[in-house]
Amino acid sequence: DVCLSKAKQQKFLYIADQSNACQLSTIGRVRRVSANNFFWIQCIKSPRLRSLLFFEEFVPEEEMEKALPLTMQSYINNHDGESNNPLLLFVLLLGFSVILTKMRGLWKYMFNNFNFLRVLDYDRGGVAGCKLPNDIGKLIHLRFLGLSGLDFFSSKLPSSLGNLRCLQTLDLRIESICSDSIHVPNVLWRMQQLRHLYLPEECNRKTKLKLGTLRNLQTLVNFNTKNCYVKDLINMTNIRELEIRGPFNIEDFNTKELDKNPPIIQSKYLHSLSIINEEGRIDPRHLAHLLLSCENISKLSLDVKIRRLPEYHYLSSNLAYIKLRRCELEEDPMPTLAKLPNLRILKFHNNAFEGKEMFCSAEGFPKLESLSLVILNSLEEWKVSEGAMASLQRLEIQKCIRLKKLPDGLRFIATLQELKIKSMPKTFKDKVEEGGEEFCKVRHVPSIILQE
């Protein structure tokens, strides 16, 4: 409260809510506005506004109702629930048209009156109108544009986005009410100041983006080879976080002499790599070659069918965090992962491993602190040798329905502080409880959590 009070005194920040929305028109010199209602836009009379933040749903339902004429509101309320009433359907469609028209006017007001905006961020999403207007290209001073979660009827973004040459952060994770994919125009290459780019989760097939000019890019989310070019990654020498969503295929890949293929990434700063493909798989050779280019990464997340884990020499020795999900590995990955000298967190989720046995050998996983085994439906036996996972502090076992017992080697892990057993068969949990036949293996653990 003290900070907010000081900010208001110095006209650094003005927070608009229902109690003071009517005062917005009097704050002409304010530079930053944080609001929870898009409909208040036209109350703001500050042509030199620098920052505009929305932290609630784009247009709350109650505000949509207020935007309708009173007669229309009354008819809808009086006939609510009459699904077979054709007149009600007509009135609802007409009302929605009124709201969309009002939204279009608000967008236009903002783009024509706040030409000095540096920051425009919508935090909670919601229905935002028919489409993002072309007039957004007038906000040429924008440094930050966040549209994440907004729903438009049109699936096309305007080409005028290319005018926003000063952008450093661009979040295009919008959705279309009428389509499963978003068409992004090939204009992002003009934004050479971009540091952080978040593409839509699903881009239209017609979308093919050139990103090779974005040499300052540090974060790239939802990259894939269907809509982007692999060759552009090598120019991103400052990239720090890369998330690949969807297909990843390397064109003209030499499958016979892997070392003859050019590197994919040359950024020495890349520390986080995520690959997500819910429907397909990635060629293990392409994955191995990609990992070979990521020699400094410390965080790796694979949510894709790969069947086989790349060999140890393809993995960065700096890896501290690995999450495997839906990988459907057929061979035990533990012997490979156990060699990683700096691995601290390891997660196997949703059938990351489809084999029946796992084995952790002595002196493996020297720095591992947290291990999660979640929904490994085929796992029946897990063996841990004395001396393995000598630094383990937290162990979670969840929904591994065929796992018969805890490994005997847990009794030797003196560092273990928490054991969490969740959604396991009753016979398994009964063995782990105090007095059960498996309790002797974990009696030294301070916190044992058993959950349904």
Automatic annotation (TrEMBL):
The organism's taxonomy opens as: Eukaryota, Viridiplantae, Streptophyta, Embryophyta, Tracheophyta
Provide the transmembrane region boundaries.
87-107
Its domain of life? Eukaryota
One of its Pfam families is LRR_14
Q: Which PANTHER family match?
A: TUBULIN-SPECIFIC CHAPERONE E (PTHR15140), UBIQUITIN-LIKE DOMAIN-CONTAINING PROTEIN (PTHR15140:SF37)
Q: Which UniProt keywords apply?
A: Membrane, Repeat, Transmembrane, Transmembrane helix
* Protein name as it appears in the record: Disease resistance R13L4/SHOC-2-like LRR domain-containing protein
Q: Which Gene3D superfamilies match?
A: Ribonuclease Inhibitor (3.80.10.10)
**What InterPro entries does the database record attribute to this sequence?**
LRR_dom_sf, LRR_R13L4/SHOC2-like
